[in-house]
Amino acid sequence: MSESACRFLEDRGHEVLRARDKVPEGTQDPIVAKVAQDLSAVLLTDDSDFKTIASRRQDGQKARFRKLSRVLLGCEHSKVVNRLEATISLIEFEYELAQNKHDKRIILDVKPTMIRVLR
Questions:
Q1: How far is 94 from 104, CA to CA, in rounded Å?
Q2: Residues 6 or more apart in contact with residue 116 via CB below 8 angstroms
Q3: What is the pLDDT of residues 97-109, one digit of tens each?
Q4: What is the pTM of this model?
Q5: SS3 sequence, the chain?
């Protein structure tokens, strides 16, 4: 994720853990997912591969990540911060809502003209 997106989240009071500080560059997605899950972090990504890794379906490899939260930002890199600004209140709302449930994951797909929340 871009540094400007990280700074935006930090300015809102969120703790931001950068993947580059936790795993070497080029680390395979399942390992990144495992690290994020072990840290109870919300994985903010623009890599659509995580859409299949972290889903609500509980089969095969996906079952390994049944506690992984992720927000997929599917837009141009230059528009990520603008899209985050436009959707952050929804993302924060979904996170707070999930904290009162048995399944505390949040899974959102944020695209240029659409937001999908998987509950």
A1: 10
A2: 108, 109
A3: 999 999 999 999 9
A4: 0.88
A5: CCHHHHHHHHHCCCCCCCHHHHCCCCCCHHHHHHHHHHCCCEEEECCCHHHHHCCCCCCHHHHHHCCCEEEEECCCHHHHHHHHHHHHHHHHHHHHHHCCCCCCCCEEEECCCCEEEEC
